[in-house]
Amino acid sequence: MHDAPSRLALVSALLPIALRAGEAIMDVYNTPFAVETKGDNSPVTEADQNGEAVILEGLKALTPDVAIVAEESVAEGTIPTVGDDPFWLVDPLDGTKEFIKRNGEFTVNIGLIVNRIPVLGIVHCPALGTTYLGADPGTAWMIEADGTEHPISCRLPPEEGITVLGSRSHGTGDAMDNFLADYTVKERIAAGSSLKFCRLAEGVADLYPRLGPTREWDTAAAHAVLLAAGGRVTTLDGAPLTYAKRADFLNPHFIARGLSPGATQVA
Asked: In the chain, pLDDT over 70 holds for what percent of residues?
């Protein structure tokens, strides 16, 4: 971790911001909250909006000159122009459908993009009490619900077969079955939100094919954590997944992976 002190200091500075956003979200989670529908037919709650307000305030104080692309602000028409310069991607409540179901599998996502690559990120799970953080390769770590911290890293695929992650709310059906036909699959697990990336990063799963739509704020923070843990995210043609691709921030289909056979685990 000593190789990137400035980025590590920055990702550590994100922690209290993410925790405060999580508290604002849980304040709503513990009430009979209302659910509204945005223009793209996706659900939104007061928790999304309150969490984003906390994050925007924190980021503007921390890095006043860095642009912020945040999901709810974009939905309301606040869309900064971004490219190769650094910018934040924020999803204050990734997994709103899981939030509504009250299953705990939703996250606060804050990621920093530089030269269209996610270079650091934090994924906080307010209902579970866990947090995943990462900056440069070899710097991924996890904070458990009891406050203990430990490094995490991707694992090599087990010889007996891989564990594959899929979305809990966005089934892919035949497309997923066809994609996995050439793999030896031991287990398939459904999980909500960006936790799927984090499961890869902590070495408990091996592959997450996303064969459905996502936005850049859905993936940036957890993508950074996965890169820091030794994993990678590519488009279906094998190119690295990059950011600031389109004005609507839409991602192509992608594959998130842990370590490939023959790779070396990060320290």
From this structure: 93
Residue 170 has pLDDT above 80, yes or no: no
Q: How many other CB atoms sit within 10 Å of the CB of residue 249? A: 20
- Distance, in Å, from the CA atom of 203 to the CA atom of 261, rounded to the nearest integer, reads 14
Beta-carbon contacts of 110 under 8 Å, excluding residues fewer than 6 positions away, are 14, 17, 18, 55, 59, 88, 89, 90, 121, 122, 221
Domains of the chain: 5-151 (3.30.540.10), 162-257 (3.40.190.80)
Q: Provide the pLDDT for residue 174.
A: 82
pTM over 0.90: yes
CA dihedral 65, 233, 124, 132 (to 10 degrees): -100
Read off the amino acid at residue 252.
P
Q: At what angle do helices 5-29 and 46-62 cross, to 10 degrees?
A: 150
Ranked by mean pLDDT, which of 3-7, 29-33, 96-100, 140-144 comes out on top?
140-144
Residue with tokens 């991924």: 140
Question: What confidence tens digit (pLDDT) does each residue in 79-96 have?
Answer: 999 989 999 999 999 998
The phi-psi region of residue 22 (left if phi > 0; otherwise alpha if psi is between -120 and 50; otherwise beta) is alpha
Name the token pair of 142. Answer: 């996890």
Joined together, the tokens standing for residue 20 give 């405060």
Determine the pLDDT at residue 71. Answer: 96
Query: How, if at all, do strands 162-167 and 185-191 pair?
Result: parallel
Q: Where are the beta strands (DSSP E) in the chain?
A: 35-37, 43-45, 67-70, 87-94, 107-114, 117-125, 130-134, 141-143, 149-151, 162-167, 185-191, 207-210, 214-215, 232-235, 250-251, 254-257
Q: Cα–Cα distance between 254 and 251 in angstroms, integer?
A: 8
Q: Are 71 and 48 in contact (CB under 8 A)?
A: yes
